[in-house]
Specification:
Distance between the termini of chain A: 49 Å
Shape of chain A: globular
Radius of gyration of chain A: 17 Å
Largest sheet of chain A: none
Helix content of chain A: 55-70%
Largest sheet of chain B: none
Number of strands of chain A: 0
Number of helices of chain A: 8
CATH architecture of the largest domain in chain A: Orthogonal Bundle
Shape of chain B: rod-shaped
Order of helices and strands of chain B: HHHHHHHH
Number of domains of chain B: 2
CATH class of the largest domain in chain A: Mainly Alpha
Number of strands of chain B: 0
Strand content of chain A: under 5%
Oligomer: heterodimer
Helix content of chain B: over 70%
């Protein structure tokens, strides 16, 4: 079972569903593909909690093994990406090796450049800067909410389901971050 | 920025991921170029921020192979392309045999029985240690060999 990342006419949800069904039938290649699609997400989350590549690597492997053993319990009530992020978040929070402070993804350089145009590159830089500014104004444990919204592409409800923080609190913190971003982008548009 | 524009932008900023833009907002955006530009830039900002974590890693990534080796050793052996090199073990084994034989020949000429017993004991200890180290360091190799044999049978 091989489904390309950019298969035309197939949504990420549908693609994941096909891969999960195949993995549950025992097709290891399908599970390998799921890992390939979501490794960066888990790795970035791990780096924020463990702050070193060795612990992060162990964390990534532990998370995928947990996902593999629990795959049959995934009912499709949420996106697969949300489900695995929730598992990874809970494992990271409960890990004995985790560092005390969460390091926002905005501080990381492990993520690759997907071939952005110069304008996109500049806008991403501004977004990272805006999120950093917003994080400084927040209680530390809320930094992950901004990361989840901006960098992990999760909705307010998905963030709340994952972290357990109230939706309205998440919404107001993200609103503040978006305002900072809008102000910074306003300068960009003028320039 | 006009009051209407501020209200419209605040309303836009409150929207969740993939939430539909309300009609009143769309109408304002059609008429106001400044707000339209801001909305375009904000949408682009959210898109570019989330893009890097969506890039898949190659299937032969080390952690993928490591996980597969744990959940399905047979599959991992299919993936591994570079065979395990045993040459350094063979060379050091041969060297060890040569040195032990040389030691044996020299002590035989000396004709001391006690030295010979000590030599045999040391020989046994070294061979045992060498074998234990060899198996311990190449555990993957043996596991894969056993798996392959099982599949062949």
């Amino acid at each position: 079972m091989t489904i390309s990342q950019n298969s035309p006419g197939i949504s990420a949800e549908k693609r994941d569903s096909i891969l999960i069904k195949s993995a549950l039938k025992g097709e290891t290649a399908a599970f390998a593909q799921l890992m390939s699609l979501y490794k960066r997400r888990i790795q970035a989350l791990g780096m924020s909690f463990f702050k070193n590549t060795a612990d992060t690597e162990d964390f990534v492997q532990e998370v995928f093994i947990r996902i593999y053993t629990k795959l049959s319990t995934f009912k499709g009530n949420s996106l697969f990406s949300t489900w695995i992020t929730r598992i990874a978040y809970n494992m990271a929070v409960n890990s004995v090796n985790r560092r005390k402070e969460y390091l926002p993804i905005a501080d990381e350089t492990i993520l690759p450049d997907p071939g952005f145009s110069p304008e996109e590159k500049e806008i991403r830089r501004i977004t990272v800067e805006a999120v950093r500014t917003a994080v400084k104004e927040l209680p530390k444990h809320y930094a992950i909410c901004l990361d989840m919204y901006f960098f992990y592409d999760m909705s307010y409800q998905e963030i709340s389901d994952t972290t357990g923080f109230p939706v309205n609190t998440i919404k107001s913190h993200i609103f503040r971050a978006k305002k900072i971003l809008r102000d910074k982008l306003e300068h960009f548009a003028v320039v | 920025m006009k009051d209407t524009c501020t209200k419209v932008m605040d309303r836009f900023l409150e929207l969740d991921k993939n939430e539909r833009i309300p009609l009143s907002l769309t109408i304002h955006l059609l008429a106001c170029k400044k707000c339209r530009t801001q909305v375009r830039l904000l949408s682009l900002a959210e898109k570019t921020a989330a893009e890097p974590v969506k890039i898949p890693v190659p299937l032969n990534d080390s952690s993928i192979e490591a996980v597969l080796a744990k959940i399905h050793p047979g599959y991992a052996s299919q993936l591994s392309k570079s065979p395990i090199s045993l040459s350094k073990w063979i060379i050091s084994g041969l060297l060890m045999i040569f040195l032990l034989l040389a030691f044996g020949v020299i002590t035989n000429h000396a004709g001391s029985g006690r030295l010979l017993v000590a030599f045999y004991l040391m020989f046994a200890a070294i061979v045992t240690g060498y074998c234990a180290l060899f198996v311990g360091c190449n555990m993957d190799f043996f596991v894969k060999k056993i798996e392959t044999l099982k599949l062949a049978i």
